[in-house]
Amino acid sequence: MTEDDAFTEHRPLLFTIAYEMLGSVADAEDVLQESYLRWSAVDRAAIEHPRAYLVRVVTRQSLNHLRAVKARREDYVGPWLPEPIRTAPEVTEDAILAESVSMAMMLVLETLNPTERAVFVLHDVFGYTHGEIATSVGKTEVTVRQIAHRARGHVHARRRRFEPDSDATRAIVRRFLLAATTGEIQALMDLLAPDVVEISDGGGKATAARRPITGRDDVARFALGVARTGITATTRIEHAVHNGMPAALCLTDGRLDWLLAFEIHHGRITGLYAVRNPDKLHRARTVRPLDRGDLQPWKP
């Protein structure tokens, strides 16, 4: 196997790890580029397990990136959402993977420190042992075990349940869009959970709510206002699956203006995630292969 073959074989796994740690397609691609350069320069004859080596390199590079972007995100204008990623149908068949890349989970991961995030992602999503993870994060196995316990408790206390994309959830999305565009506020209210939350990310580069909107009444009125001012005769709406969730893409003259991902639980919309920042939209229509690997021992 050549160096290119090994990197290409494991690229979906490496990209998934980097994306879950960074919440950004652009940053994940940068990490993979840096990791490939390191992989190209190493003496591969001395590497018994290429996948283990590549996962360690990507983890370390992701940690470096995450520490660097933390300050940048603290200065972000308005709410920050992860860069949406278009997911293939098979992602929704893997419940752990679908939840791990959901908008809600990615927001929870943002509240962890970089090491906690790396440990949680590698252990709870990808199934690596504490000992295996210790070699990547530069901690002892005992310390990693403690970090994992703390991170898991933090995540489980804040996680939000949702139903992956399906015929049923897509039908709810269609009803929501119809009600919003026709001004049927009661129909909207019937689709929203009482504690529904709407989060808009404009990044200071597009019009968006500067803080989360909560509650059925306020979210319904906000949705009607957006539909009234943002959807015109030239607007086209596409249905898609992003981050394992049903989504609607709003396009004007072929340009993606905003993406709306729907969090649905027990037949009601519990979360709406609207991405309007153009920096996060120009890659949003490309399907990205995601992979959790074969979940076999890492063999560091």
From TrEMBL:
Record-annotated RNA polymerase sigma-70 region domain positions: 7-68
Xref: Gene3D superfamilies: 1.10.1740.10, 3.10.450.50, Winged helix-like DNA-binding domain superfamily/Winged helix DNA-binding domain
Domain RNA polymerase sigma factor 70 region 4 type: from-to ranges: 103-154
Matching CDD domains: Sigma70_r4
One protein family per Pfam: Sigma70_r4_2
Keyword Transcription listed: yes
Subunit structure of this chain's protein: Interacts transiently with the RNA polymerase catalytic core formed by RpoA, RpoB, RpoC and RpoZ (2 alpha, 1 beta, 1 beta' and 1 omega subunit) to form the RNA polymerase holoenzyme that can initiate transcription.
PANTHER family: ECF RNA POLYMERASE SIGMA FACTOR SIGJ, SIGMA 19 FACTOR
Protein family according to the UniProt entry: Belongs to the sigma-70 factor family. ECF subfamily.
Protein name: RNA polymerase sigma-70 factor
Species per Swiss-Prot/TrEMBL record: Streptomyces durmitorensis
